[in-house]
Write a structure and sequence with these properties.
- The protein is mainly alpha-helical.
- It folds into 2 domains: 119 residues, P-loop containing nucleotide triphosphate hydrolases (Rossmann fold), CATH 3.40.50.300; 97 residues, Helicase, Ruva Protein, domain 3 (Orthogonal Bundle).
- 56% of the residues lie in helices and 7% in strands.
- The chain has 13 helices and 3 strands.
- Strands 1-2-3 form a 3-stranded parallel beta sheet, sandwiched between helices.
- One of its GO terms (molecular function) is ADP binding.
- InterPro entries: Apaf_helical, Disease_R_plants, NB-ARC, P-loop_NTPase.
Length: 243
């Protein structure tokens, strides 16, 4: 995701850390897109800022009170990643609470894939990320599949057509390029003529999600099981490994 990557660059920039002593990254996509749980979001902000869970189970007014004590200490940068809720009332309630709590000069950064969500939280002119140029798209494809193969006679025309179908979206190019890396001409031709053309009909025309599903379908059975298991964990959760 473009927005996630750009927001991460901003969030982790040393200049931002210096400007905003308090900062928090909240993965809002873990929530039901049809019902924004304001209390859960505020609790997550508090826990991120304090590394404490001492407000779990407390009523909303107490959560707001305790969070205010934290946020009013210093300037604060809050990132809401992948917000989906499109109901103005619920978004307004959350924003109004946060604006009343944070110190002057604090900032809230929201990433979303929905223009309706941007409108719901009062963003009149959102910063909409564009796709790569044709030149950069091809360069990324070359890096992913290998420059020598991408530019060899029998592959270059197929590669150009495949990149075009990826609509200049980096994620799509990397996913498809990874599938083609190390494959022979027959696999490239098959992907170009049949499989890639068919993905537009998957998932109601959502091409990015279709390409991701397409790559999933080509995993081995063992990797599919592993992927499905990992999907049980909430987005943004740090998974501790034993070895």
């Amino acid at each position: 995701r473009f927005a996630f990557t750009l927001a991460q660059l901003v969030y982790n920039d040393p200049r931002i850390k210096e400007e905003f002593p308090l900062n928090s990254w909240i993965c809002v996509s873990n929530q039901d897109p049809n019902q924004l749980d304001v209390k859960a979001v505020l609790t997550a902000i508090y826990e991120s800022a304090t590394a404490s869970k001492d407000i779990d189970g407390l009523p909303l007014n107490v959560v707001v009170q305790q969070l205010g004590k934290v946020l009013k200490q210093k300037k604060y940068l809050l990132v809401f990643d992948d917000l989906w809720n499109e109901k103005p009332y619920e978004c307004d309630k959350l924003v109004d609470i946060l604006v009343s709590l944070v110190q002057r000069g604090s900032r809230i950064l929201v990433t979303t894939r929905s223009n309706r969500t941007a409108n719901a939280i009062g963003i009149n002119q959102p910063y909409e990320l564009q796709g790569l140029s044709d030149e950069d798209s091809w360069r990324l494809f070359e890096i992913t599949v290998g420059r020598e193969k991408a530019n060899s006679g029998e592959y270059i025309e197929m590669g150009k057509d495949i990149v075009k179908q990826c609509a200049n979206v980096p994620l799509a190019i990397k996913v498809i390029g990874s599938l083609l890396r190390g494959q022979h001409e027959k696999s490239w031709s098959s992907l170009r003529q049949c499989r890639l053309a068919a993905i537009k009909d998957i998932d109601g025309g959502n091409k990015i999600m279709s390409i991701l599903k397409f790559s999933y379908y080509h995993l081995s059975s063992s990797l599919k099981n592993c992927f499905t298991y990992c999907a049980l964990f909430p987005k943004g959760l740090e998974i501790k490994k034993e070895r």
